[in-house]
């Protein structure tokens, strides 16, 4: 116990120095308009005097007892003067009797000291005086705390800002005194550790009280950083955990024999194992973070740190080779502590399809991920979908009926944030539920909305760069084609001239006949090639004709019968409107792609049928399949090819050819399962709906 006494003396001296310094600072630099200024100076000076006495004499000596009584009376008077700072001088008449009663209770300690010294009591009488003193001191502390409560609750808002530091310091002082004297009464003697800590408590209280006399004290607030708060709370939880383990270990003292020896050891092993599993967990850290933010800060987010992290994540180009789409998902998910997310991007029909996924492999996203109606609502209303509200039936803008079933049924889906660029929807990010569940609030909605707009600008910028690059490459392609077309045109003219000369000057009939056939076929092929090269963008001016999809499918299947197994799995007659040569060319390209993607002699199937509005031709293979990312960014992009030496314009040309006929080309694919391309062309019976003004349809037998 000697080291506790030495520590206590040192802390009392510290309390004396800090209290004296605080009194001197208030006397020289404290707010002069405060009516309790000099009362505070006297109270701090008497506190320093008591700390010196406690460091110099025994705790039960007369000097320590008398200086403590003087110190407490001074602080009671400071409490009385605090009521005047609120401008409630009239109310002092009501408070004065209560303060006098508290002071009389404290003065009764002098009677107990005098009795102890006058009669030199010992044994039970001394214990009785000690217990009486502890009860009276606890009563004084309770009364002071009640007065402080009434002072702060009844003060105006401006006065509360002025009194907060002084009131907080005095609450700490009287609360410590209440606990100290209560424990002393219950244990029958002062607790040595708490006796040693009284000097440190006096120093802390003196600093806080002096801060309250600063001219700008009304604007001072305790604002720890979020890192400090999180780590402090972590240390508090860890400390409480080990304190509990220590208490449990000590509680086994009631056991006897070998069980008593083995139980603490087993408990320590179990506690260590539990700590290794529990303390490093993401869920535990998430709970600590949410708790710290909820109780220590006005705002949920540290906006400066969040924005720095967001910018670094989006702008990072590390070794993981993650795409911009994946980085944008991660940047938004990090803000809400979501472990995964999806990016949905616009498709060709006004809805949304999967653009990218980040750490969410288990979710199954359909090809049509979100309808055009829901995207329109999210675009015009800037609506952030809270899926817990959706599942609870709460509606804001008529969106409930349009929320897809796959998102309703996925309980891990938490929120969908629209990405708006100049009020135009460029995508939607779906966030998964955080490990520590909580409800979305106004601060989440505000921050996610702003971050969504920033992400939209990044995606729009990338799209603009891609479009500019494609335009540049198209320009180069067009220049090359101009030279090619010029050379072919010259060659065609020369061959046509040769054909005319041969018709006039050939002598031998056999030679003339063979030459005419050869030259005529060559000229026809070259002219056909020229027509095809010059037809891009002009298909709408050609005359449409009625076609039978079953006949087209049969013709193309027959062309590949000696190359690869191509089966006509379904051949239903349906008359559509379109261009035979262009349709056959697009279908041949799709079948050839399916053959290239198939392994060995895996058959490729062609189906033709009608859905009542359109005639359908589908090409189905069981090949390698394509990833969602490639279908979005590479399949229909010019100059992007998965084949060695491929020019990368075939799929784009096939889609544009079908579109020029008023049709549509859709694709569904799963990696490892295969791919299905579907050509849809309007039925002849529906030509009134699909036909554009001025379009003529040629009847064919």
UniProtKB/TrEMBL annotation:
Pfam families: GAF (PF01590), HATPase_c (PF02518). The keyword Nucleotide-binding applies. GO terms for molecular function: protein histidine kinase activity. Its EC number is 2.7.13.3. Residues 483-685 form the Histidine kinase domain. Signal peptide: none annotated. It catalyses: ATP + protein L-histidine = ADP + protein N-phospho-L-histidine. The chain crosses the membrane at residues 6-26, 38-57, 63-82, 94-115, 135-153, 165-183, 195-216, 228-249, 261-279. Keywords: ATP-binding, Kinase, Membrane, Nucleotide-binding, Phosphoprotein, Transferase, Transmembrane, Transmembrane helix, Two-component regulatory system. It is an enzyme of class 2 (transferase). PANTHER family: PEROXIDE STRESS-ACTIVATED HISTIDINE KINASE MAK3 (PTHR43065:SF10), SENSOR HISTIDINE KINASE (PTHR43065). This is histidine kinase. It comes from Qipengyuania psychrotolerans. The gene is prsK.
